[in-house]
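Q: What does the assembly look like in three dimensions?
Context provided by user:
Components: two
Sequences:
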Amino acid sequence: KQEVTQIPAALSVPEGENLVLNCSFTDSAIYNLQWFRQDPGKGLTSLLLIQSSQREQTSGRLNASLDKSSGRSTLYIAASQPGDSATYLCAVPQDTGRRALTFGSGTRLQVQP
Amino acid sequence: DVKVTQSSRYLVKRTGEKVFLECVQDMDHENMFWYRQDPGLGLRLIYFSYDVKMKEKGDIPEGYSVSREKKERFSLILESASTNQTSMYLCASSLDNNYGYTFGSGTRLTVV
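A: Here is the predicted structure of the complete assembly.
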């Protein structure tokens, strides 16, 4: 059964820093990996989707990489801003053929002004 | 953009009540999902559906059932609400395995 781990669990940084969030998964036979953002008390907003054939995806100040063979993904946030404060979750399909996602427990990010 | 709408943001129900949580998506997606999210336990899959009238149990289906009579609507039913079902419930949809998931804004259910 697929398991997803995110490190660190929480992170506090001053505004302007570049930072890296880590995600690891146990079964490398994945279709894709998705990063989400969740604000307190709200639903999940999709940030980036990386297909299994891709190594990275970029959207604005966000860059996500995927290394299937090692079971790892990183989310890089450049020039962090207070508005980036949120919980970031990564997710992969539960197992081959199954459509549902397994989520990591998330990294809670606080960017200090 | 795909929109997934959950009918209620906040809901308070009494123990033993039958509770319906509704979710509607507007992009003809095949797959729809119900998760619950609890502090320290993360997101856990309750049920999902890959077609009209089709459903499959997730990791924690006990105490829940679902209904998908139309492609755009996926309902989660708490047959007899209990206090341990107090949680944030999140609905999602996706086209297929190659596409991302879109989530609704969530329903915070409190059972008293």
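Follow-up: Chain A has a mean pLDDT of 92.
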